[in-house]
Amino acid sequence: MAAQEPLGLTWFEFAPADAGRLEDLVARLRATEWAYVDREVDVRLSR
After folding, report:
1. What is the Cα–Cα distance from 19 to 24, expressed in whole angstroms?
2. First to last CA, the chain
3. pLDDT by position in tens, the chain (length 47)
4. CA angle, corner 27, sides to 40 and 39, nearest 5?
5. Which of 31, 44, 38 minimizes the C-alpha distance to 5?
6. For the chain, is the Cβ count within 10 Å smaller at the N or the C terminus?
């Protein structure tokens, strides 16, 4: 990613019970709409 390129942010909120469904969604996005992404950071927070 060049310094002049904007940083994109995608945020999901989900219940712990839905973690598997989120993984499926993210896998589909990575294979299609997010195919242009060069670098990714996955941060998960919980209370």
Report:
1. 9
2. 32
3. 556 677 788 899 999 999 999 999 999 999 998 888 888 889 988 88
4. 15
5. 38
6. C
